[in-house]
Write a structure and sequence with these properties.
By secondary structure, this protein is an all-alpha fold. Helix content is 79%, strand content 0%.
């Protein structure tokens, strides 16, 4: 039951991250093209995005270490067997690795907003870091339509 609750939280936070990423990307694009000053609102969106991403990471790592699809699979079946099975490999390695990369990009993008560089450069850098993170997340979320690895929308 605890596992299912954390899995639901992990899934809900996915939507929070996607919405905040879209807002941050649009704000960065507008700021970059309209040459606007980097506002406190821009910083807050990045901060909330990073908090949501790191919270999701912590929940995901707990699920990976103590749930049935991560370390347990590797320990029970062996790394070689997990790597040969497409579904087990996805949950044990691919999803985790890609999401770690995406969260690192979000964190770097948030860090750029705190640097003393021109506002246009801030917008441009956050735009690209957040856009690449969004592409990685969209490519590696277990969407319901993905055969074998699909999970419900919530």
């Amino acid at each position: 039951m605890f596992y299912n609750g954390l899995l639901l939280l992990h899934s809900l936070l996915r939507w929070v991250i996607l919405i905040l990423l879209l807002v941050a990307i649009v704000k960065s694009y507008i700021g970059m093209t309209a040459v606007k000053p980097f506002s406190a609102g821009d910083k807050k969106v990045g901060l909330f995005l990073m908090i949501a991403a790191h919270t999701t990471l912590l929940v995901g790592l707990y699920l990976w270490f103590f749930g049935p699809r991560g370390v347990a699979n590797i320990g029970n079946l062996g790394f070689g067997a997990v790597m040969k099975d497409r579904v087990m490999r996805y949950y044990a390695v691919e999803h985790t690795t890609a999401m770690l990369i995406a969260i690192v990009l979000i964190t770097i993008g948030r860090g750029v907003a705190k640097k003393r560089i021109p506002d246009v450069a801030k917008y441009k850098r956050t735009f690209w870091f957040f856009l690449i993170a969004l592409v990685i997340i969209l490519a590696t979320v277990p969407w319901p339509f993905r055969a074998g690895i699909g999970r419900p929308w919530l």
